[in-house]
Amino acid sequence: MSTATETKENPVSQNGHGSSHKQRKWQDYFTFSTDHKVIGIQYLVTSFFFYFIGGFLAEIVRTELATPDPDLVQPEMYNQMFTMHGTIMLFLWIIPAGAAFANYLIPLMIGAEDMAFPRLNAVAFWMIPVGGVLLISSFFVGAPQAGWTSYPPLSLMSGKWGEEIWIMSLLILGTSSILGALNFGITILTMRIPEMDLNSMPLFCWSMLATSALVLIGTPVLAAALILLSFDLIAGTSFFNPVGGGDPIIYQHMFWFYSHPAVYIMVMPFFGVISEVIPVHARKPIFGYRAIAYSSLAIAFLGLIVWAHHMFTSGTPGWLRMFFMATTMLIAVPTGIKIFSWCATIWGGKIELNSAMLFGIGFISSFLIGGLSGVMVAAVPFDIHVHDTYFIVAHFHYVLFGGSVFALFAGLYHWFGKMTGRMLNETWGRIHFALTFIGFNMTFLPMHQLGLLGMNRRIALYDPQFQSLNQVCTIGSYILAVSTLPLVINVLWSLIKGKKAGRNPWRALTLEWQTTSPPAIENFESEPVLWAGPYEYGIDSENEDEEDVEDMLTEVSAQS
Amino acid sequence: MQSSTVEDPKLALNYHKELKNEGTHGEHPDHRMLGVIVFLVAESMIFLGLFGAFLIYRSMMPVWPPEGTPELELLIPGINSIILISSSFVMHKGQSAIQKNDVPGLQLWFAITAAMGAIFLLGQLYEYSHAEFGLTLNVFTSCFYVLTGFHGLHVTLGLLLILAVLWRSRQPEHYSENSHFGVEAAELYWHFVDVVWVILFVLVYLL
Question: Is there a contact between B43 and A220 if contact means CB atoms under 8 Å apart?
Answer without folding.
Answer: yes
